Amino acid sequence: MQIPHEVTARPDTGLYNAKLGIWLFLASEVMLFGGLFSAYIFLRMGSDDGYWPMGLLNVPIGTMNTAILIASSVTVVLAWAALKMRNWAQYKLYMAITIICGIIFLAVKLTLEWPEKFVHFGAFIKKDKWAQYEAYLGNEHLAKKGLAPRPEISGHLEAVEVTVAPEKKADFDAFLAKNHLVAEAGHDPAHPVIIVKGEHHGPKPSVAEKLVRLPGVKAVAYEVQLDAVNAEPASPDNERPHFIPRKRSDKVATIKAEDISSWSAFAPKHSPYFAVYFTITGLHGLHVLAGVLVFIYFYFFGEKLYRKNPEHMANRVEVSGLFWHFVDLVWIFVFPIFYLL
Amino acid sequence: MSSTHAHGHDDHHAHEDHHEPGFWRKWVFSTDHKMIGIQYGVTGLAFLFFGFLLMLVMRWQLANPGMPVPMIGGMLQAFFGESAFQSTPEGVKGVLTANGYNAFGAMHGTIMVFFGIVPVAFAAFGNFVVPLQIGAPDMTFPKINMASFHCFFVSCIIMMGSFLVPGGAAKSGWTSYPPLAGVADMGPGFHPFFNGQTLWLVGMIFNITASLLGSVNFIATIIQLRAPGMTWMRLPFFVWAQFVTAWLLLLAFPPLEAAGVMQTMDRAFGTSFFMPTGLIVNGQLSEWSGGGSPILWQHLFWFLAHPEVYVLILPGIGMVAEIIANNTRKPLYGYKAMVGAIFVLGFLSFIVWAHHMYMTGMGAKVAGFFQTTTIMISVPSVILITALMLSLWGGSIRFTPPMLFATAFLPMFGIGGLTGIPLAFNAVDLYLHDTYYVIGHFHYVVAPGTIFAIFAGVYYWYPKATGRMMNTGLAHLHFWPSLIAINGIFFPMMLQGMAGVHRRWYDGGATYEQIIKPVIHWNNFMSVSAFLLCAAQFPFIINFCYSMFKGKKVPNDNPWDATTVEWDTPSPPGHGNFTKEIAVYRGPYEYSVPGAEKDFTPQTEPPKSDKPATSPAHLSSAPAHSH
After folding, report:
1. Chain B, 302-321: which have a CB under 8 Å from a chain A CB?
2. What is the pTM of this model?
3. CATH superfamily name and code, A17-119+273-340
4. Average pLDDT in the B252-277 region?
5. How far apart are CA A73 and CA A327, in angstroms?
6. Residue B469: pLDDT above 70?
């Protein structure tokens, strides 16, 4: 049994089956990402002043990734055109470039952009405690200028100050040894605390989270090596987000645990901003991965079909190319709304 | 290329030496649209029955709060566990707990909608009938079609499995409103991932993926694989209904998939998509960072779930239209108006969703907009139902089993539709919201509406699928008690709802007896009706199984003297469907054409001559039975 119009167009619709199929599929994809983008709009519009972070992503790297993805969209069309002209060698070349672009995009995301966020620490300060942290938040300055307040202190975790119930000390020590952490005694004899540091650099936020949730352990304060924006919060330089990431300052701030409304790494649970950022870029990354896998399959296993029915092979590349353009288009929306706006 | 003219029939001569596929290829990994339709149908019917059984347990609890379920109580407790059932102080097992009641209610809704009706009305009948009706050898993408069913099957296993995890299945309503759904089934005693609500979300994500794969296939098939001569306005109305339904599924489901992903993130990764700032759970400030919006979920959910209502009803209307035309022996009244109406209905169904959300306090302007669109959507609905009513006018009706159900569908769907109009108005809805009135209203649409249409469809196409007729006596035994009992369940719900009985009371309103005294006694009546309805299904189940092997063989391939193309195939149709070249020469409902030899002219019958036959002898309506 042969399904009609698998390769050549049906005269009255002008489409072969797969081309119609992919357009329908893309329509549903528009609605899928549309749901997520509308969540972005809804959450952003509903967020309190200052609670929607800006300028946290690495714009130069994002720009590079945008260029790479657009370039791959061009090469996939060239690969299709090469097949239409029945030039297999050229097809292989352009397809290889497309695949490499896709892999670079994913590698940048997974080895640079995301991990950098997972080790970044951010703590939202309770509103009634903002005045105590004026030196890091600069809210009086911002209020004078009519700008949105700054509720968060961010940077890299240097140390966590905790108290430990004596009967749980053994478990606590075992946890430190397992996670390559070291403990020091606090300096203030009136308030005895244990200061937990890393062997080389501070504890990762994810480890710190587990640490303060150990039974018998109570967080007292967090020592944070500040981001530039919290180091000089009143500087006019910090009134707008910066597109070029700036060096961390050497200043270390101590934030009391009781003054924090919530803290975490720059991970999905940090805030609705990172939640929607990781969800959309994650889903987009899965789409890139799917496209790359299909292209790899066409690269290595396409020749048999090409020899048998070159038009069919060209159609396949056209259809997967349409998908690839869509993935590209999603990124064209992702880039401005997360990196720039 | 060769395939432009081949149209699937060039290999029919090879049919005879076609290898019979092995067990796995035939029953499990089949790419044949008919087998996939049957797989969907059998799974979906089983789920319909299971969802109904869940409700029977709930109805027992509503009529006899706190009493152990008789006879099978111990079995239920052993299967569903201690979270859903407990023992009486005397040690009798099988009392439904509040948790169990909530889980059964949430799963009843989920199963009936997503695992029962959509798989049967859309996927099963659509898969089996649509390619046959348009003269196609199969669906456009047979392998994707198979993937669709397998995806659905995985979602079934996940949903059923969720009953067995610690704490039981999801219990936050079929709507899974956060923040309740965000915090439910978490904490001590629950697995961080294998808990009811998270499995519900994962199961739904698989279910949605399956329906997306299916709907792409349906639309592509109807656009691309119509046989020569099958122009758009020659499509049977059922195909139109499936076409619009597929569009609704294609475009409305993905936002819920997005919402499902987001709620899974909230539960598994601690994000705050739907978790508001300062959420207090069990008297303690929760750990979510906050800043999310529960209303966002409601928007995304109802953006799917309102079109979903039309996904539930349109295939039913399509089936009823086919059966009414066939059994009145006359064309559908206003076929073109019906096609127009169904498109308007499909479009409007996307802009009415927030009428489910009047209680959220969204403001008079927004409510006014959704109230207006909701009233507008009743216009195409009324066109459809009126056209079907008028189609009966002047017909010489054959009350075959499918026709019994199809005629019953009309008033039942009518009651369901008309009781919905008060709910469309903001002011009235604020009073009726979340009462049994709402339950009665939409159950009239989907239970004696869609499910009766499904029964009609089963009786109608069963001979095509199996080559055997279903037993008429048993069908009557199925129909009449079902019709009476189902009204006995749902009509009192309207009375209770108007008296203010809330839909989620676990004890049937015993706590509020003083307030609802005049209507609380209906609980008993409704529950007895529900058990009678269950009993009335056994003739159908017996008929369905028995006729498969022992039913009367079909007298010919067209036992109902129908005009549409699916009756031009062998019964059951083989791989590739048609044994001859199919071409279509006429519209779908040429019944009792003046001057024709028989009272039906199949779509595939070529015109005899250019001159119309005028012999008055043939104008008589006596059907030309050849058997």
Report:
1. 303
2. 0.94
3. Cytochrome c oxidase, subunit III, four-helix bundle (1.20.120.80)
4. 95
5. 9
6. yes
DSSP B237-273: HHHHHHHHHHHHHHHHHHHHHHHHHHHHHHHHS---S
Distance of alpha carbon B396 from its chain centroid, rounded? Answer: 30
Please tell me the distance from the alpha carbon of residue A146 to that of residue A104, in angstroms, as a whole number. 42
- With beta carbons less than 8 A apart as the criterion, state whether B338 and B345 touch: no
Model confidence over A182-234: pLDDT tens digits? 999 888 888 889 999 988 888 999 999 999 999 999 999 999 999 999 999 99
Measured between beta carbons, the chain B residues lying within 8 angstroms of A311 are: 1
Residue A241 scores a pLDDT above 90: no
Q: CB distance from B192 to chain A under 8 Å?
A: no
Q: Which of A31, A127, A128, A322 to mutate to test the interface with B (most CBs of B within 10 A)?
A: A31
Q: Are B299 and B353 in contact (CB under 8 A)?
A: yes
Structure token digits, residue B277: 């700032």
Q: Is A59 exposed, middle or buried (0-12, 13-18, 19+ CB in 10 A)?
A: middle
- Phi and psi at residue A334, in whole multiples of 5°? -60, -45
d(CA B504, CA B40): 31
Angle at A231 between CA A229 and CA A232, to 5 degrees: 75
pLDDT given at position B612: 52
User: What is the Cα–Cα distance from A17 to A2, expressed in whole angstroms?
Assistant: 13
Q: With an 8 Å Cβ cutoff, is A209 touching chain B?
A: no
Cα separations (Å) of B589 from B323, B520, B602, B618?
11, 49, 8, 18
Residue A206 DSSP one-character state: H
Could you tell me the CATH superfamily of domain B35-65+97-275+289-550?
Cytochrome c oxidase-like, subunit I domain (1.20.210.10)
The number of residues making up chain A comes to: 341
| Dihedral-angle region of residue B44 (phi above 0 means left; psi in -120 to 50 means alpha; beta otherwise) | alpha
Give B11→chain A minimum CA distance, Å: 6
With an 8 Å Cβ cutoff, are A272 and B296 in contact? no
Please state, in angstroms and rounded to a whole number, the distance separating the CA atoms of residues A35 and B163: 30
Q: Reduced to 3 states, what is the DSSP secondary structure of residue A285?
A: helix
Half-sphere exposure of B405 (CA within 13 A, CB side): 30
Domain ranges (residues) in chain B: 35-65+97-275+289-550
**HEC letters along A52-86:** CCCCCCCHHHHHHHHHHHHHHHHHHHHHHHHHHCC
What b/e sequence results for B477-502 when a residue is b if at least 16 CB atoms lie within 10 Å of its CB, and e otherwise? bbbebbbebbbbbbbbbbebbbbbbe
Instruction: Read off the DSSP letter of residue B331.
Output: P
Q: What tokens were used for B204?
A: 């739904």
Largest CA distance in chain B: 87
Minimum CA–CA partner of B294 in chain A: A43
Neighbours of A296 (CB within 10 A): 15
The three-class DSSP label of residue B299 is helix
Asked whether the beta carbons of A91 and A109 are under 8 A apart, the reply is no
Residue A114 to residue A133: CA distance in whole angstroms: 29
CA distance A63 to A68: 9
The answer to whether A117 contacts chain B (CB < 8 Å) is no
Domain boundaries, chain A: 17-119+273-340, 123-265
Top residue of B3, B225, B569 to mutate, by most chain A CBs within 10 Å, is B3
Task: Return the residue of A nearest to B4 by Cα.
Answer: A5
Q: Bigger pLDDT: B11 or B311?
A: B311
Strand partners, A197: A159, A182
Q: Measure the CA–CA gap between A85 and A125, rounded to whole angstroms.
A: 63
CB–CB contact B4 A5 (8 Å):
yes
